[in-house]
Write a structure and sequence with these properties.
By secondary structure, the chain is an all-alpha fold. The protein has one domain. The protein is built from 4 helices and no strands. Helix 1 crosses helix 4. Keywords: Membrane, Transmembrane, Transmembrane helix. Pfam families: DUF2798.
């Protein structure tokens, strides 16, 4: 877990980027529209939207909810699972809405499209975050701590 603001920003950025590229590929595949040009064409706007939602909307309430859950806060793995799960729920809620709006706009079928999108995205995003992206990004964070650029200075 991040230990200072630089680490927090770095960790948020790599997790957000990893989830956006993975979930974008997944959704393009689901809709039969996968190509590298489609993937990379939507990557920057998707990342910007996801990063803003993550930092400004989802992170704080997700952490408050996770810390209020009846988990053993002394066990790091339980807190990682709780925080990650709450983050995924919040991000899937907003990013599914973003995806439906970008794909279909606000139509009379918006709610049915949204519910379908939310369900399919949650089924993919939760295990992706808990089993692949989260552990890899925590490993990258741990390795990056060995370099001096993430350490906070008092300058």
């Amino acid at each position: 877990m991040p230990q200072n603001k630089k680490e927090g920003l770095f960790f948020t950025t790599i997790v957000c980027f990893s989830m956006v590229i993975s979930m974008s590929a997944y959704n393009l595949l689901l809709h039969g529209q996968f190509s590298l040009s489609n993937l990379f064409g939507g990557l920057v706007p998707g990342f910007i939207v996801a990063f803003i939602f993550d930092v400004l909307v989802v992170s704080s309430p997700a952490k408050k909810i996770a810390f209020a859950l009846p988990v053993n806060k002394e066990k790091n793995i339980q807190m990682i699972i709780a925080v990650s799960s709450c983050m995924v729920l919040g991000m899937v809620f907003f990013m599914s809405m973003y995806g439906v709006i970008m794909q279909f706009g606000f139509t009379e079928n918006f709610l049915s499209y949204y519910i379908g999108s939310f369900t399919k995205n949650l089924i993919m995003a939760l295990p992706l975050q808990l089993l692949i992206v989260g552990p890899i990004c925590r490993m990258i964070l741990k390795m990056s701590r060995q370099s001096s650029w993430l350490k906070e200075t008092n300058n």
